[in-house]
Amino acid sequence: MKTLLLLRHAKSSWDDSGLKDFERPLNNRGLQAAPAIGRFLRQQKLQPHLILSSPAERARQTASLVTETARLTADLRYDERIYEASLERLMEVLAQIEDAAEVVMLVGHNPGLEELLEHLTGEAQRMPTAALASISLELDKWGKVREHAGRLEWLVKPKDLS
């Protein structure tokens, strides 16, 4: 059994028109939402064995704030394949995770995360910024990940925590 946590980056800023999309940081709302999700994750007593994040600034900040607030000790890796990733690319990323990692958190972007959630669970769910979903997968090896292999355990949004 594997557990996949999907975390969409928190709300980002559009204030600086000179920044490339990849460089956009979190705005004030995002800087508050990410720690709130981290506190929720800590309450769930879930400790990922591996955290894979898009290297985009808003995803990096989200991963860092959630990791710090939830007191996660997992290895945090930045994977360029996650930025603007298609469903197919995200499935490739999952299939290459080392099998020793039972609980993995993937920090990324829409529409890829919503598509991945639906592909794995058969449930179409909206993932607004800073939403966190937990999917249980009936797998012993990440390389066996496939369509409808998972069940959505829960999906929490920052507004659910206020």
Which keywords apply here?
162 residues; alpha/beta; Rossmann fold; six-stranded mixed β-sheet; 4 helices; 6 strands; 31% helix; globular
Please explain how this structure is put together.
With 162 residues, the chain is of the alpha/beta class. The chain has one domain (2-134): Rossmann fold (3-Layer(aba) Sandwich). Helix content is 31%, strand content 21%. It is built from four helices and six strands, in the order βαβαβαβαββ. The chain has helices at 28-44, 57-70, 87-95, 112-121; strands at residues 2-8, 50-53, 75-78, 103-108, 132-137, 150-156. A six-stranded mixed β-sheet has the order 3-2-4-1-5-6. Strand 2 (50-53), helix 2 (57-70) and strand 3 (75-78) form a beta-alpha-beta unit. Helix 1 (28-44) crosses helix 2 (57-70). The longest helix is centred in the N-terminal third of the chain and has 17 residues, at 28-44. The protein is globular. The model has no long low-confidence stretch (mean pLDDT 96).
